[in-house]
Amino acid sequence: MNPEEVVLLLADEYSRMAETYDRNVTPHFAPIAERVLRAADPKAGELVLDLGTGTGLLACMVAPKVAPQSVVAIDLADGALAAATYRAAGLGIKSVRFEMMDVRNIVYRGGLFDAVVSDLGIPYFGTDRCFREVARVLKATGRFVFTEWGEFADPPQEALLAALERHRTRDPPKKLAELRAASEFARSSDGFKALRDPQRIAALLRAAGFRRVDVADVRHTAVFDPPESYLDFRLSWGVFEAEVAGMSPSSREVFATEMTRELRGLSGGKGLEARWVLHLYSAWPQ
Question: What confidence score (pLDDT) does residue 270 get?
Answer without folding.
Answer: 87
